Amino acid sequence: xxxxxDLTNERASGTFETNAMAAVIYGSEKFAQRRRExxxxxxxIPEFQDSHPLVxxxxxxxxxxxxxxxxVLSNYWNSLIDTSDExxxxxxxxxxxxxxxxxxxxxxxxxxxxxxxxxxxxxxxKWLGRAQRRExxxxxxxxxxxxxxNLRALETTATFDISTREFILNSPTITSLKWWPGALGKxxxxxxxxxxxIIKEHNYGPHPFMVQLRDEKSHEPLPGxxxxxxxPKMAFNGADNGFLGFxxxxxxxxxxxxxxxxxxSDGSYIKPPHAKIGYSSMVKVRSRMAMDxxxxxxxxxxxxxxxxxxxxxxxxxxxxxEVKVLDYQTQQHRLFPSIARAYAFIFCGFETIRLYDxxxxxxxxxxxxxxADLHALTSGLKSVVTYQTGEGIEQARMACGGHGYSMASYxxxxxxxxxxxxxxEGENMVMLLQLARYLVKSIEMIxxxxxxxxxxxxxxxxxxxxxIDLNLGPNEYLKVFEYAARNQxxxxxxxxxxxxxxxxxxxxxxxxxxxxxxxxxxxxTRLYIMSTFINHVGSIVDQKVKxxxxxxxxxxxxxxxxxxxxxxxxxxxxxxMDLIRNQLYVSxxxxxxxxVSLVDSFQISDMQLRSxxxxxDGNVYENLFKWxxxxxLNKTDVLPSVTQYLKPMMEKSKL
Length: 655
Ligand SMILES: CCCCCCCCCC/C=C\CCCCCC(=O)SCCNC(=O)CCNC(=O)[C@H](O)C(C)(C)COP(=O)(O)OP(=O)(O)OC[C@H]1O[C@@H](n2cnc3c(N)ncnc32)[C@H](O)[C@@H]1OP(=O)(O)O
Ligand SMILES: Cc1cc2nc3c(=O)[nH]c(=O)nc-3n(C[C@H](O)[C@H](O)[C@H](O)COP(=O)(O)OP(=O)(O)OC[C@H]3O[C@@H](n4cnc5c(N)ncnc54)[C@H](O)[C@@H]3O)c2cc1C
Description:
Strands 1, 2, 3, 5, 6 and 9 form a six-stranded mixed β-sheet that branches. The chain has a three-stranded antiparallel β-sheet with strand order 4-8-7, with no helix packed on it. Strands 10-11 form a two-stranded antiparallel sheet. The chain has 22 helices and eleven strands. Helices cover 55% and strands 8% of the residues. Among the domains are: 139-272, Butyryl-CoA Dehydrogenase, subunit A, domain 2 (Beta Barrel); 473-600, Butyryl-CoA Dehydrogenase, subunit A, domain 3, CATH 1.20.140. The protein has helices at residues 5-13, 18-25, 29-43, 59-80, 86-97, 105-118, 121-132, 280-310, 329-364, 371-399, 401-405, 411-420, 428-447, 474-501, 506-512, 514-538, 543-563, 574-591, 595-600, 606-609, 620-629, 640-654, and strands at residues 138-141, 157-161, 166-170, 178-179, 190-199, 202-212, 225-229, 242-246, 249-252, 262-263, 269-270. The structure holds ligand LHLMBYCS and flavin-adenine dinucleotide. Ligand LHLMBYCS is lined by residues 86, 89-90, 93, 105, 108-110, 140, 142-143, 148-152, 182, 276, 279, 282-283, 285, 371-372, 375, 424-426, 430, 434, 437.
């Protein structure tokens, strides 16, 4: 069937090449090209197609479908991608497995990275190759039923038995059961388990251990292990998040991951070079989250923007033809700032992935000095991007009206998966407070006359306000944001200090200042996102692409400043606020002809989108009807439940 002419016209009005834009989004022409090649190759392999729409499947069917595809994938793996390229691998996973989770998701995202970062060379020799070849399937078991955030209160124990040189793992209480780890329930046969290291009754706190859970031949749980699935979730139902308990389960001493901390055979403990080095797998995932969330947001926007360009409802001036809903200013205001955020998140994502890779090298070389900075940055970023992504996806759903609420849009699934990120890898408020610790320390350095020692990301906290001339462009908006973040950080810190100086304990003063502190963290992070966006656009060579991204940046800076209006009242007059508001409306109009091309540029395939509304060809209505007819409820005209309950009820009522 040919493309919907409304979309053809939209594409014709674009002022740039979507391939050129994709090269900017994905960091290089080479990778953008590789993505297209992988997508093209996959589309030719029929076994990769869903056997029927995932949204009509039960959990058991979804998991089985994911396993089926993984088995097929293992036959093609080496021919489809450069297996040493993580981004290619991720693209392949996204295309084939989608976003609902699968048995290898945690194997790839946490199990292998933990082995790389935490296992000694000998341990890597033993397990890393096996994991990379997928001879074993691993997961990352840290969270317990009773504790996820406060890692110091985890209850699982690994007690060193000097006589046998083994660790004995135990789950002493119900609340100590590991609870949530992805792929733990039914798929993984090995796990990195985080347990308290106990030697001669001294608790050295949480450490990582490599633990076999199931027999490698029968896949039956090993004696001493209780393991299973935790049940259905809001989303991610293609994944078997699990529970795990230990009863006097023994593992060799060599199974404690000993790249950094060590236990010798006589039970001596060797400290790591940094107390939090064992948390690196979490930092790794957090450093990926801006990118992943940017892509979730992008997916919802591809659907909403394409659909808005084919959905006609109501009239503007021309009463002879209904208007595309994308032409309403309210629709543009609902969608375009989120397009800008999706671009900004992806740009930040590339930056934090690069920073993590560098940190990994530094730490392997004994330099841990960058850990605190990256922890602070990724803590704030994961919190802000997950929250704003959730907001943006929900707006995209509403922008699709009634059909947005149907699973045919697939937006609800994207939403459910994306907002999981507000919780996993550290609950958002908790992570904002981690960043706040860093910001408060920075203010204390300024107060102690050590401004020169501040890192580049917080140097603005020591600066004075300057005059703002909004006509000068994005960098002036950055100054507005700096003002807001600086003011809020100082205010929150001073509140905390005042409470503490009044005699309150440090903890209680912190608690009573914590809402204000989280606000400071959000503003600081949004400033970082904006400045990364500005720097990125500044470096683009293709002038057509650059021109459109400057337009998109204008949407971003004006929208973001309007959104934090309350924090800039002392800086901007009401006339200046009006000016910004009007600039935003003008920016929405400017970007309108490029809206479809901007979302096309994400190059997210129909196979991955799984959305009837977001189809690239825009043929929504006929496919919506086809999709509804394929609902299992429509297999028969009269359901057994009608025959069994409703008919007798109606007949009884007639009497
Ligand atoms: C390649 C192909 C891949 C294919 C896959 C594709 C599919 C992808 C789909 C994947 C989908 C989903 C994945 C889902 C994964 C989810 C996995 C998880 O959720 S794992 C569990 C995560 N859990 C957490 O994040 C727990 C959160 N809690 C914490 O991180 C910590 O407890 C805490 C930071 C809140 C506090 O730690 P605590 O030990 O109590 O700290 P203290 O108070 O003692 O000290 C604070 C001090 O330490 C510094 N700190 C803390 N963390 C770090 C760190 N990581 N690095 C450096 N420094 C750290 C902190 O800044 C403080 O410093 P001060 O100087 O004292 O201020
Ligand atoms: C989809 C998904 C996948 C997951 N995958 C894994 C996995 O593979 N492996 C794994 O180990 N775990 C996994 N988890 C668990 C996840 O990491 C934890 O749920 C998460 O870290 C939050 O911890 P919690 O559940 O203990 O929340 P809680 O800490 O109980 O949070 C409840 C509330 O208390 C607040 N709160 C808690 N502490 C503080 C504080 N100090 N200050 C202020 N407020 C506070 C929080 O902000 C929140 O509002 C997964 C979770 C989900 C949802």
